Every structure is written in structure tokens, then in C-alpha cells.
Amino acid sequence: MGSRHQKRLAPLSLRLISNPDHEVLTQLYQVEVSAHQDPWTLDDIAATFSDNTRCIGLYLKEELIGFAVICVVVDEAELYTIGVCKKYQGLGLGRKLLGATLQECLQLGATRCFLEVRVSNEVALHLYDRYGFTITGTRKNYYQGSGGNPPEDAFTMMSDLTQLPPELLCDLA
Ligand SMILES: CC(C)(COP(=O)(O)OP(=O)(O)OC[C@H]1O[C@@H](n2cnc3c(N)ncnc32)[C@H](O)[C@@H]1OP(=O)(O)O)[C@@H](O)C(=O)NCCC(=O)NCCS
After folding, report:
1. Which of 116, 131, 142, 143 is an active site residue?
2. What residue ranges do the domains of the chain occupy?
3. Which of 29, 39, 60, 86 is the most exposed place for a label (fewest CB within 10 A)?
């Protein structure tokens, strides 16, 4: 399903975003608000940029339609966030973005990647499963309730990046 839709959506590109100015931070924030039920603020996004983090943007022509942020320290990576604008979800783009993000982790020397995810987030769990992530534990009430919603548990997950089939990975550009 994904590749047929992606041809229609071409040209897609995956690019590293560094030292974002206010305009790029605003684009990231717009994606964040479109993708996530409990979005980061613009300041949260700005604060993730550091020496150890990388932000990978997914572009449709020149429009930013998704991004992921990783933190890599020595041989361990953590996926801080990944999201695709709501109108582009379910088209295989999350797979493409995660494939490029994990490839970047490997290139930076990480052999394992960790993350947390809402226990109810079936699409993300499906995506992570495909990329070798397995559940390593549960964090009780990790996500605070907001907008009348109760708190929610997180699964902690880990993937051994050295075992990923190359066809799941994807270079930037
Ligand atoms: C999670 C997210 C990044 C996935 O990206 P996406 O482009 O929507 O997903 P894809 O189309 O690449 O599909 C990924 C997998 O989920 C499956 N999937 C997609 N939509 C689905 C749905 N509504 N229900 C069940 N499975 C679904 C796909 O079939 C695919 O599995 P496959 O590889 O076995 O075929 C995206 O949906 C998103 O931004 N969600 C909101 C933010 C979020 O939850 N981020 C993760 C936690 S931080």
C-alpha cells in the first residue's frame, strides 16, 4: 500500500534539520500539533536540539510533513519523538521516516535504540514492531492526563539495530 501512495506523493525527501531558525521551528511545531494528541510546545521542540540529538525531517517537495528526533550517546539511541501530519498518516511515510532515523542512529554508532510509547497507540506499536522493537517494561501513568483524559501507562521498548534487515533502513536525501 505504502509505496503506491508514495509514488503519488513524490517527490519525498528526508533531511537532517540542524540549528533551526524561528521559521523552521514553527514548521516543526505545526507538524507536532497536527500529528500528536498531546503536542510539545515550540519551546519544547527548540530545547531538544543539542549536540547529542538529531532531527530528521520528512518533506513533500518543500513542505515539512513529518519529523523524528533521536538522542545518541555512545552506542545507545533514544527515539524522543516521531510524527507525520495527520492528513499524510497511514500511507507508509512513518515507516520511511523511522527507517531513515534508525539508519542515522547506526551511522552515529548506536547499536540499540530505546523508546517509550502509549500502551494504546496501536499504529505506533505496529510500526515499532516491524522495526524490531520489543516491550521491555511498563511505566505506570507515565503520560499525564490532559483535556479530561486520564493518565496513561507507557511501554518501554528496545530494538537491536544491528539485527535490522537493510531493506528496512533508508538513507537521508
Ligand atoms: C505513528 C506514526 C508516525 C506512523 O506513521 P504512519 O505514516 O501513519 O504509518 P505507516 O503508514 O508508515 O504505517 C506503519 C504501520 O502501521 C500500520 N497502520 C497504519 N495505520 C494504521 C491504522 N490506522 N491502524 C492499524 N495499523 C495501521 C501500517 O499498516 C504499517 O504496518 P505494516 O508496516 O505492517 O504495513 C503516525 O501515525 C503518527 O504520526 N501518529 C501520531 C504521532 C504518534 O503516535 N507518534 C508515535 C509516538 S511518539
Report:
1. 116
2. 2-167
3. 86
- 167 annotated active-site: no
C-alpha cell read off for 126: 505496529
Contact between 141 and 111 (Cβ < 8 Å): no
Using the atom order of ligand 1, give the atom closest to the CA of residue 1: 35
Q: Is 29 a catalytic residue?
A: no
Q: How far is CA 149 from the centre of its chain?
A: 23
Q: Which CATH number fits domain 2-167: 3.40.50.300, 3.40.630.30, 3.90.580.10, 2.30.30.50?
A: 3.40.630.30
pLDDT for 93-134, tens place per residue? 999 999 999 999 999 999 999 999 999 999 999 999 999 999
Round the average pLDDT of the chain to a whole number and report it.
Answer: 94
Ligand 1 close to Cβ of residue 99 (< 6 A): no
Q: Cβ(151) to ligand 1 under 6 A?
A: no
- Interval between CA 135 and ligand 1 midpoint (Å): 17
> What is the pTM for the complete model shown?
0.94
